[in-house]
Amino acid sequence: MKEQLQKIYDAAKADLQKANSISDIEDVKLKYLSRKGELNSIKKNLKDLSDEDKRIVGAFANEVANNLETEVKAKYDEFYKKELDEKLKKEKIDVTLSGKYVQMGHVHPITQTINEITDIFHTLGFSVAPDKHSPEVETEYFNFDMLNFPQDHPAKDMQDTFYTTVAPHVLLRSQTSGAQVRTMADTKPPIRIIAPGRVYRNENINSRKNNFFHQIEGLYIDKNVTMADLKGVMNEFLRLYFGASRPTRFRSSFFPFTEPSVEIDVECIMCKGKGCRTCSGTGWLEILGAGMVDVNVLKDSNIDPEVYTGFAFGMGVERLAMLKYAIDDIRLFFSNDERFLNQF
Ligand code: DAH
């Protein structure tokens, strides 16, 4: 039996010698040292021996098993190190390589401008009207009639305003001014709101005009509100948005829903003189209309003009952005050109 053990040991050593990989070594371990391996099957026969032989052969069997285990482990360690070295050599990592660039989206410049203007009006005590007061699909009633537009006003014409086929008199709003009427319908003065949003006009598209753009409407109604308040608030807004050194001017104007009315121009910074396509060579670009809320509008909204007065304004967001960042073509905002958008 001892001889048999010696033979197994020799065979195991020979197999180990031949082993060429960690998996070969594991095969040797399985063949000789596992529970069902060759050494164990010999050990099972020990019970047939005399006590004396049991002791001697048993001790020898243990010695063989221990030795084999030590040798397997040594070989295993050797191969493990070798395979690891090879792997490390093959899978070299260049830590100086630059990482993968993750492209992050960001807020559109028009939304950025709306946010900036909204922040300014927050500091001046205005809050944003709820969405229900400022729908994009609007009725003729709120977009025009309640704002004192006469029935035959040219703006009501299909040439200027997009009408829907949803129902008669339902249109894509041409101005955010309807938000004034909707606010007055369910809010008691004092009122101090702004309403930003998209508006639509049937325009010939060029560098200054698009068939949709954005406005921010404003309404301030309280006792004793005067034209001086209008000028004060507008000038403060212009100073906070453009900085104190930017030339601006008030011009008298006309809107059906304000009396008196003004328009505010800002000096053109894209101006290349006579040929400037942004300001048509005038040196100024109109950015907002404003005025004292017309008595008829107050009355129609059940606000007593003997007690309350107010001013309203509506500004063009694209124009304000163009004049701040020297953008000479409104179409750039809507072209989704990353070379343009990534500058913001
Ligand atoms: N809604 C006007 C427009 O689109 C702008 C405007 C003018 C708004 C005077 C106002 C205002 O609230 O008082 O041209």
What does this structure look like?
There is one protein chain. It contains 11 helices and 9 strands. It is α+β, with helices and mostly antiparallel strands and 344 residues long. A 7-stranded mixed β-sheet has the order 1-4-5-9-8-7-6, with helices on both faces. Strands 2-3 form a two-stranded antiparallel ribbon. A hairpin with a 2-residue loop joins strand 6 and strand 7. The longest helix is centred in the N-terminal third of the chain and has 40 residues. The chain is rod-shaped, with a radius of gyration of 43 Å. Bound molecules: 3,4-dihydroxyphenylalanine. 3,4-dihydroxyphenylalanine binds next to strand 7, strand 8 and strand 9.
Describe this protein with a few key phrases.
2 domains; single chain; 7-stranded mixed beta sheet; rod-shaped; alpha+beta; 40% helix; BirA Bifunctional Protein, domain 2; 344 residues; two-stranded antiparallel ribbon; binds 3,4-dihydroxyphenylalanine
